[in-house]
Specification:
Helix 14 (300-313) runs parallel beside helix 22 and helix 40 (894-917) crosses helix 42 (944-966). It is built from 42 helices and 10 strands. The protein is mainly alpha-helical. Helix 9 (205-221) links the parallel strand 2 (186-192) and strand 3 (232-233). The strands form 2 sheets. Strands 1, 2, 3, 4 and 5 form a 5-stranded mixed sheet that branches. The N and C termini lie far apart (104 Å). Among the domains are: 1-120, no CATH class; 300-453, Nucleotidyltransferases  domain 2 (Four Helix Bundle (Hemerythrin (Met), subunit A), Up-down Bundle); 815-966, Up-down Bundle (Four Helix Bundle (Hemerythrin (Met), subunit A)). It is 59% helix and 5% strand.
């Protein structure tokens, strides 16, 4: 028979205020008249508790007889009695809840007395705490299973309802390793096998077991007048954001096989079945052996787990070993480092060394030393530090039954706590603590000495596990995240593999390293939340992300640039998500500058031709062309976004690129078409560009307005080739091939969208137009609006001879004498119709606004048509160029040129940035803050409101000049 707890007491913690604490002890109505106080060791222990622990002293004062009974019994007998009381707990729920809570308070007091009194070593303390949690969970589940069986939902043995029920509870973390701390949550995971569970017909297994799981949490966690049993944490189940609290085992097995993370492997080292169907649980854990224990030495686990630890230590509060306010679990040299030290090496070597698969820290330290992986000094110092720090942790939690591991900050409070830990002087406690922390830090650092640091992070960034770390939320808030909880959840979701792009182990390993820098880049963008959300949306669209993440990890400048793009240009970020390789070009200074060195389309075509050289077939040619266009547009956009070029240069660069691509694609289409159909003797083709390409004013979102012209000798025969075609049909089919080359959809999208509605007769007309038909149509049938469009027309590709003929037709058309009154009336009618049918999408749509970009263009185009007959030099496809020529000819006032030019520039600045940064409908006011700031900056305005005011003023001036020059207003 073991001796009583009283007879085994050793020197106790010291009271800081022994006189007042002694009076409190003497003031208790002890059941034996105070005889218990005659024992000096008992009196010293009770006095220390009265002085230091409000929680424990409250238990003693509430029931002195219970305290005396526990002191007079052996702790082994008391624990056996508590276990028996829970095995035989009443079935009625109210009585069961009282029994569970009563048992918890008795166990809490008993284990504390044995711990503080030196009767229990650390191992016995943590085993007793873990055993009680096992008993409580098992008793609560037994009650719920019986209730389900009585209700006809399950067919179970009333005496042993756990047997073959198909539902089981795993303990994880410290509970699973039988290392529970004094006031810890218990980490549970609930699973069921629907094929094994004896569920009644018509009952859905998942609904039933989720209900049982919720009942289990309620029985254990609900606070009543009798207290609570345990705080339950179910978030260590597979991806808790995606799965219910009870998980089918087949779902769980698939998750761990494909998405399980190293921290989850570490958690499952300690997994244990503690309640429910034991055989079912054992089979499940056996199925996870390949997930937990890799066949080959898994050195990648070291980098991954250390990255998690470095995230923890990114907090300034954890950067150095201290005493006041130090976290003995998470801080430098703390309990977590000892656990990581052991678990990491278990994960690395346990696949080949089954003896390293144990769940408990201290035995595994011994095994690592026996296996030769660590030295005797490491085992001795880490084991001693573990016992020391766990004892401190327990005393911290005994103060108020709170789950805390942080030492007091104030020196007086710290000195009192040192006495609770058995030290007469604070200096001695500090020395003992620093010695252990230093030893742990030294051994831990040796294990990870080659691992990179996190750089200059400014706070805790912990996204492992499932809970929000309060310090991490504070860090995110300090970085500028308005919704830090949402941000933390987003990052955690990546680690759970909820995005296909980060579902591979390699992607998540790189992501773990990259996360702190990634979040800093998002913060520096000026709109951290939008940047993070945009990056998450990118991952959602990408099939894989290792390439992108590796580029970002290796190039901090590109990471910073991407952060800016994500926070300020989500549409530009879309390009990266579809084609991560474009970032390679941004890294290379030579490639980054290539679209801007020359705005000559011939240079763009030369660069494209070098990319297309050696393409094995026509399809490969198209794919290479798309990759080139995507890269070049991205680089132009980056230059505009970063304010390296202005909107006008960007417009000319986009246009030069498009022109060069049109030239190359026409040539490739002609070659491929000729291979099938031969050629038409003397036949020629030319591409007429109108709209933004014609005027060299393209934006990132512009399509191509094209007309395909052709000509051939009157006596031309059918084409000479394997499949000959008549001339008109030949050029129609060639046009189809050419347009398809530009518009065919691929994974990265088409080269360009092409609009051919400006061809003669629009959609009703043939796809390609002979030069003669084009000339006749423009001379005899075209509407005024079609001639307005021709003021911006240019030949951009094709045969030189036909290009010359087409230019002569254009000049003749535009320079013919017109009835100015009729012209102005047609323009007014057209503008009113447009105003009625096409409204501005929002306040920042300067294109369609009354007095907006359309009106500036109409003024220039109308005046060209009105006066080109007498002033042939007016013809200029660009709007600003046309206005300048009109002013030089004295056809508009210098003030008109200045005000219309300023308005055009502002409209172009806003339009270029909006179409670069945003997706349709380009709503600037509804955009993220980063976008709004960028547009304000590009418009040389302090705020977006100032941009709006400037747009209003510019539109008013354009309306004035429209009335003065064209003679009409819309209102």
């Amino acid at each position: 028979m073991p001796a009583s707890l009283l007879s085994r007491l050793k020197p106790s913690p010291k009271a800081a205020r022994p006189a007042s604490a002694g009076r409190r002890v003497d003031g208790v109505d002890w059941p034996d008249g105070g005889k218990i106080l005659a024992d000096l060791a008992a009196r010293a222990l009770l006095t220390a508790i009265a002085d230091h622990s409000p929680f424990l002293w409250g238990l003693i004062e509430a029931d002195p007889a219970r305290a005396v009974r526990l002191l007079n019994e052996s702790p082994e007998s008391s624990l056996a009695r508590i276990a028996s009381s829970l095995r035989d707990a009443p079935d009625a729920e109210p009585e069961l809840m009282r029994a569970l809570r009563s048992a918890r308070l008795e166990a809490a007091l008993l284990i504390a007395l044995a711990d503080l009194g030196g009767v229990f070593a650390l191992e016995e303390t943590i085993e007793a705490l873990s055993d009680f949690a096992d008993w409580a969970v098992a008793a609560a589940l037994r009650h719920l299973l019986r209730a389900a069986s009585s209700a006809g939902r399950l067919a179970l043995d009333a005496d042993a309802p756990e047997r073959d029920c198909g539902f089981f509870v795993l303990a994880l973390g410290k509970h699973g390793g039988r290392e529970l701390n004094y006031s810890s949550d218990i980490d549970l995971a609930l699973f069921f096998d629907a094929t094994r569970a004896p569920v009644a017909p018509g009952i859905e297994p998942e609904d039933l077991f989720v209900r049982i799981g919720k009942g289990l949490v309620r029985l254990l966690q609900s606070r009543t007048e009798d207290g609570y049993v345990a705080r339950v944490d179910l978030r260590l189940r597979p991806d808790p954001g995606a799965h219910a609290i009870a998980v089918p085992i087949d779902v769980a097995e698939n998750y761990y096989e494909t998405l399980g993370q190293n921290w989850e492997r570490a958690a499952y080292i300690k997994a244990r079945v503690i309640a429910g169907d034991a055989s079912c649980g054992a089979r499940f854990l056996e199925s996870l052996v390949p997930f937990i224990w890799r066949k080959y030495f898994d050195y990648a686990a070291i980098a991954d787990i250390h990255a998690m630890k470095r995230q923890i230590h990114a907090a300034r509060g954890h950067e150095t070993v201290t005493v006041a306010g130090h976290d003995v679990k998470l801080g430098r040299g703390g309990i977590r480092e000892i656990e990581f030290f052991v678990q990491t090496q278990q994960l690395v070597f346990g696949g080949r060394r089954p003896q390293l698969r144990g769940a408990r820290t201290l035995p595994m330290l011994s095994e690592l030393r026996a296996e030769g992986w660590i030295g005797a000094d490491a085992e001795r110092e880490l084991a001693e530090a573990y016992r020391f720090l766990r004892a401190i942790e327990h005393r911290l939690q005994m103060l108020g039954d709170e789950q805390t591991q942080r030492l007091p900050v104030e020196s007086d409070d710290l000195a009192r706590f040192a006495k609770f830990c058995g030290y007469s002087r604070l200096a001695a406690f500090e020395s003992a603590l620093l010695k252990r922390l230093g030893a742990v830090e030294r051994h831990y650092a040796r294990l990870f000495e080659r691992a990179p640091t996190l750089g200059d992070s400014t706070g805790s960034l912990v996204f492992t596990g499932v809970a929000d770390d309060p310090e991490t939320l504070a860090t995110l808030r300090g970085l500028g995240f308005v919704h830090p909880e949402q941000a933390a959840d987003t990052v955690r979701a990546w680690h759970f593999g909820r995005r296909q792009a980060v579902s591979s182990a390699r992607a998540r390993e790189v992501l773990t390293e990259l996360t702190p820098g990634l979040l800093r880049a998002f913060a520096d963008s000026g709109d951290a939340d939008s940047a993070l959300n945009a990056f998450d949306a990118m991952l959602a669209r990408m099939p894989a992300s290792v390439e992108l993440l590796s580029i970002l990890r290796g190039h901090p400048r590109i990471l910073a640039l991407l952060g800016d793009v994500l926070g300020g240009a989500p549409a530009l970020a879309d390009v990266v998500s579809l084609s991560p390789h474009v970032l390679d070009a941004a890294i290379d200074p030579d490639r980054a500058a290539s679209p801007l060195r020359s705005l000559d389309p011939r240079r763009a075509r030369e660069r494209l031709e070098s990319q297309l050289a050696g393409a094995p077939d026509y399809e490969s040619t198209l794919e290479r062309a798309r990759a080139f266009a995507c890269e070049q547009r991205f680089l132009i956009g980056l230059a505009l976004f970063s304010d390296a070029i202005d909107a006008d240069v960007a417009a000319r660069a986009y246009s030069a690129l498009a022109e060069g691509i049109v030239q190359a694609m026409l040539e490739r289409a002609r070659r491929a078409f000729a291979a099938d159909h031969g050629s038409i003797a003397g036949g020629e083709v030319a591409i007429l560009a109108l709209g933004k390409l014609g005027s060299r004013e393209m934006t990132a979102a512009s399509d191509l307005d094209l007309i395909v012209l052709y000509d051939f000798p009157a006596d031309a025969a059918d084409s000479h080739g394997p499949r000959p075609l008549a001339p008109d049909l030949y050029f129609a089919r060639l046009t189809q091939r050419f347009i398809t080359a530009l518009t065919a959809p691929t994974r990265t999208g088409p080269l360009y969208e092409v609009d051919m509605r400006l061809r003669p007769s629009g959609r009703k007309g043939p796809l390609a137009t002979s030069l003669a038909a084009f000339a006749h149509y423009q001379n005899a049938e075209a509407w005024t609006w079609e001639h307005l469009a021709l003021t911006r027309a240019r030949i951009v590709a094709g045969d030189m001879a036909l290009a010359g003929k087409a230019r002569r037709v254009l000049r003749a058309t535009l320079r013919k004498r017109r009835d100015i009154g009729e012209l102005f009336a047609d323009v007014e009618e057209m503008r009113r119709l447009m105003a009625a049918e096409r409204k501005p999408a929002h306040a920042f749509d300067p294109k369609l606004a009354d007095g907006g970009l359309i009106d500036v263009e109409f003024i220039a185009q109308t005046l060209i048509l009105a006066h080109a007959h007498d002033h042939p030099g007016l013809l200029d496809p660009s709007t600003h160029g046309a206005l300048t020529r009109l002013a030089k000819a004295g056809l508009i006032e210098p003030a008109a040129l200045a005000e219309l030019g300023d308005a055009l520039r502002l409209f172009s600045d806003v339009t270029q940035l909006a179409r670069l940064a945003l997706r349709p409908p380009f709503d600037v006011e509804g955009a993220a803050d980063g976008v709004r700031r960028r547009i304000a900056l590009a418009s040389a305005a302090p705020t977006l409101a100032a941009v709006k005011d400037a747009l209003g003023e510019a539109e008013a001036k354009v309306r004035h000049w429209r009335r003065a020059l064209l003679g009409f207003a819309l209102d």
